[in-house]
Design brief:
The protein has 263 residues and is of the alpha/beta class. It has helices spanning 13-16, 21-28, 33-48, 72-75, 85-95, 113-121, 138-142, 147-164, 190-210, 219-222, 241-257; strands at 7-8, 11-12, 63-64, 66-70, 99-100, 104-107, 131-134, 172-175, 214-216. The chain has a five-stranded parallel sheet with strand order 6-4-7-8-9, with helices on both faces. Strands 1-2 form a two-stranded antiparallel sheet. The protein has a two-stranded parallel sheet with strand order 3-5.
């Protein structure tokens, strides 16, 4: 007869534990339904007593599997691979004693939110990443796309990002859109650009807050670009490796404060 599956904060524990090696092994065993159900309860009980409502903090013993979703800012247009902020973040974690794998980056220069969404629709990404980032929207602003359109697309993508983290919102973070009005490229239209970037960021911050996802504001760092030209890449538009390093410092501060990472 059917047996009710226990829930964890509104979600069936079979979903919460779907990426557990123990749970996957249990499902493959040739057990009678009643014994399989009993094993589910045992695994659920052992998991629940070690989990908290915000998920498990990533310790230095955990191998960090990082997925970075975005556009030119995430792929590091005009900087060397080692200067990309996702790569710098993983190297910074290694320097602090964490075990980290090479980051998986899904990002292309020029992508709008819908481009990223389409790429994810056609991907076969796993759902076992324990750190996922999202930074998208500057090209929606640059190409004059409607904020309402961006809002709906961003929410869909953020939901996908949460799925890639196994449903654990505490392992996902959103970065604000940088302000390219503070670069040689955008200087002439700085006021217009900055106002629009603020409007787009108000949308992605609101959605992140609604989804209970960590939001990290790096826009203020990007607005130092004219005072310190070394923060801008040679193309006069994108961040330099030096600016990305400042982003990484801000990201680490926030991940530690939110207890996503242990000290």
């Amino acid at each position: 007869m059917p047996v009710a599956v226990p829930h964890y904060f509104g979600r069936p524990m079979t979903q919460v534990l779907k990426n557990s090696a123990l749970f996957r092994l249990m499902e493959k065993l040739p057990l009678q339904p009643v014994f399989r159900a009993l094993n589910i309860y045992i695994v659920c009980f052992l998991t629940c007593i070690t989990m908290d409502t915000d998920g498990q903090t990533l310790s230095k013993k955990t191998s960090i599997r990082f997925l970075a979703l975005g556009d030119s800012y995430t792929i590091g247009e005009s900087v060397a691979e080692l200067q990309r902020w996702p790569v710098q973040l993983m190297n910074a974690l290694k320097a602090r004693g964490y075990t980290s794998q090479t980051p998986k980056i899904i990002a292309v220069t020029g992508w709008r939110a819908d481009d990223l969404q389409n790429a994810l629709d056609n991907s076969s990404l796993s759902r076992d990443y324990n750190l996922v980032s999202l930074l998208i929207g500057v090209n929606n602003q640059y190409q004059g796309k409607a904020i309402a359109e961006y809002e709906s697309q961003f929410e869909v993508i953020l939901d996908r990002a949460i799925l890639y983290a196994g449903g654990d919102k505490s392992k996902v973070f959103v970065l604000s859109i940088p302000d390219y009005g503070y670069t040689p490229f955008g200087l002439e239209k700085q006021s217009e650009i900055s106002g629009q970037i603020d409007a787009f960021n108000a949308v992605n911050e609101s959605i992140a807050e609604k989804k209970a996802v960590t939001y990290i504001d790096i826009t203020d760092i990007s607005r130092r670009g004219l005072k310190d030209p070394a923060l801008v890449a040679e193309d006069g538009l994108h961040p330099s490796g030096k600016m990305y390093a400042l982003w990484v410092e801000r990201i680490l501060e926030n991940l530690l404060a939110s207890k996503t990472l242990t000290h």
